[in-house]
Amino acid sequence: MAFELPALPYAYDALGAHMSAETLEFHHDKHHQAYVTNGNNLLADSGLEGQSLTKIVKASHGKNAGLFNNAAQHYNHLHFWNWMKPGGGGAIPGALEAKINADLGSVDEFKSAFIAAGLTQFGSGWCWLALKDGKLEVMKTPNGENPLVHGAAPLLGCDVWEHSYYIDYRNARPKYLEAWFDNLVNWEYVEGLFDAAR
Ligand SMILES: [Fe+2]
Q: Could you read off the pLDDT of 67-105 as tens digits, one per residue?
């Protein structure tokens, strides 16, 4: 099955000043589209045609860099659009909040660690909340890499490539990460991934 670019799950201007329509037009219509187009070209004759996206990501890691980069970024962005919603942020659903408190100390400690991971990811990449061996972890990865290739289930990821924030925040990655966490995160979607991964 070929990779396909899904429509955004909300209007381009739905995230307001936290992430502008211009950013989403470039990020979704140009960047994500390029991962889909290049991924499909590289998938042909790779021996992985017809496999699930997660299988393609894991199987191409360390073996087919071009396919891995594009397939992993396709996976990451499919979720990224859903990790945000208009009027997001706020309270974390109960069972997930309890797990965060148990594994990461507190929601405040988790937030600090998540933002620090995004800030200290040198160059392009992602910061993550992931479930590994039954325990929550905060992680960071370069470029298109994600927790799947580290034996973990990604539950929440923030894109810290400059294409995700430069139009709205210029070089202020800390401001972007704070605003993203406080105003955009779709915790119900994170909870769904948590329930599926447990
Ligand atoms: Fe991106």
A: 999 999 999 999 999 999 999 999 999 999 999 999 999
Question: Which residues fall within 8 angstroms of residue 158, CB to CB, at 6 or more apart?
Answer: 80, 83, 114, 118, 126, 127, 128, 164, 177, 180, 181
Instruction: Output the CA 165–ligand 1 centroid distance in Å.
Output: 9
Cα(169) to ligand 1 centroid in Å equals 15
Predicted local confidence at residue 1, as pLDDT: 72
Beta-carbon contacts of residue 182 (< 8 Å; ≥ 6 apart): 89
CA of 121 from ligand 1 middle (Å) equals 14
Describe the chain by its helix, strand, coil percentages, rounded to 5: 55, 15, 30
Q: Two tokens at 123?
A: 């160059």
Helix (H, G, I), strand (E, B) or coil at 197: helix
Tokens for 176, please give them. Answer: 């972007």
- Whose tokens are 């589209």? That residue is 33
Residues facing 138 on adjacent strands: 129
The tokens describing 44, both together, are: 């042909």
Are the CB atoms for 104 and 113 separated by under 8 Å? yes
The DSSP bridge partners found for residue 130 are 137, 154
Predicted TM-score (pTM) above 0.70: yes
| Neighbouring residues of the ion ligand 1, judged by CB less than 5 Å | 159, 161
CA–centroid distance, residue 65 to ligand 1 (Å):
18
